[in-house]
Amino acid sequence: MSRLLIIGCGGVAGVAIHKCCQNSDVFTEICIASRTKSKCDAIKAKLENTTKTVITTAQVNADSKDELVALINSYKPDAVLNLALPYQDLTIMDACLETKTDYIDTANYEPEDTTDPEWKAVYEKRCKDLGFTAYFDYSWQWAYKEKFEKAGITALLGTGFDPGVTSVFTAYALKHYFDEIHYIDILDCNGGDHGYPFATNFNPEINLREVSANGSYWEDGKWIETKPMEIKRVYNFDGVGEKDMYLLHHEEIESLAKNIPNVKRIRFFMTFGQSYLTHMQCLENVGMLSTEPVMYEGREIVPIQFLKALLPDPASLGPRTKGKTNIGCIFTGVKDGKEKTIYIYNMCDHQECYKEVGSQAVSYTTGVPAMIGASLVLSGQWKKPGVYNVEEFDPDPYMEALNKFGLPWVVDENPVTVE
Ligand code: NDP
């Protein structure tokens, strides 16, 4: 019996909302609130006669703490699930603090305006101190720990697939297969084809910022940064086949480095086809990935936001995308004094996802874990005052829920490793 406020109504939220409605015992009532209320009303109309979950909708600008506080005070949710953009993380956390409401999200904070001098000063110091230059990092949200503890509320950070399920796989491997984990390789493969020359599978602005940035990995207690796409490997993925994959910076590396004792190296690889990379390079070379505003015919535009308006809406890729995703982690460590390696992964079929919830697998693999994280906080199983990443909780109920809600996983005890 609980009431959840969901903020955002894009690709990921669409799946999470479907899944909450399949789990009405936990989610008795949900309110879908976003910038564009018509999208919330459309999904409500689609689902309300198929579920016991009572759905309401609202308009909210999640950049405004005051609007969020007013909405939370009027709806009185038990928790807020943030499925808007990383830009809104801190305002939503502030509103949760003010109203003493639990908070859940899928991506760490990143500023919308990277030219903001106040943010830039902190960023530049962090680049120097820690040695990675991604625009996003956990420091902003981890800084809320004490405030959340004092308020007696929980913040669960990063319950998507990666971060999210990959971190839960790590906690599960450590609990059931290893005494110590020394090496983690996170492999994110999308073997899907949507038939467009170029499109991104989730929010283009967030996606392109992430993949055009420098890569980095964690080794022997420090960050090692690489040029974008500098490190390439080839891997043969179950259900997909052989793919090129490239080392990227990714946010769960930061939290796993902090939370997994004795880990020596953590890397993240994502698959990209040559055509995607050529398009991206070209867009970058002409300045279309820039987040800095430029003047155009008397008004300011942000190139990457303009590009977003031109690209296919990720939510529209569902009916066109065929093939599978395969995402998981290869762990090497020791158990009872012996070295061992295991690979835990999930395969997800784009067309199956579309049949079930009307979305492709990238939104599906994020929306399902978002629902699961929210259900564990609401049911009290993952409730503890403070700010936590998913690997800090007991992985077992989460792993069980993945099997139940459409993301079954496999443990391969004799995998091929990545060089
Ligand atoms: P979309 O762009 O499809 O959806 C974002 C939604 O947020 C839209 O409904 C948008 O409204 C709404 N929104 C944006 N700004 C505001 C605002 N100021 N106030 C209220 N609502 C707002 O993104 P996705 O669904 O693809 O991604 C959602 C989140 O999931 C992102 O944070 C993304 O980084 C994260 N993610 C995490 C992954 C993981 O594995 N951990 C993987 C993929 C995504 P409008 O409709 O008006 O534009």
From TrEMBL:
Saccharopine dehydrogenase-like C-terminal domain segment(s): 160-406
SUPFAM superfamilies: NAD(P)-binding Rossmann-fold domains
Annotated InterPro entries: NAD(P)-bd_dom_sf, Sacchrp_dh-like_C, Sacchrp_dh_NADP-bd
Gene3D superfamilies: Dihydrodipicolinate Reductase, domain 2, NAD(P)-binding Rossmann-like Domain
Pfam families noted in UniProt: Sacchrp_dh_C (PF16653), Sacchrp_dh_NADP (PF03435)
Domain of life where this protein originates: Bacteria
Residues in Saccharopine dehydrogenase NADP binding domain copies: 5-156
Protein name, UniProt field: Saccharopine dehydrogenase family protein
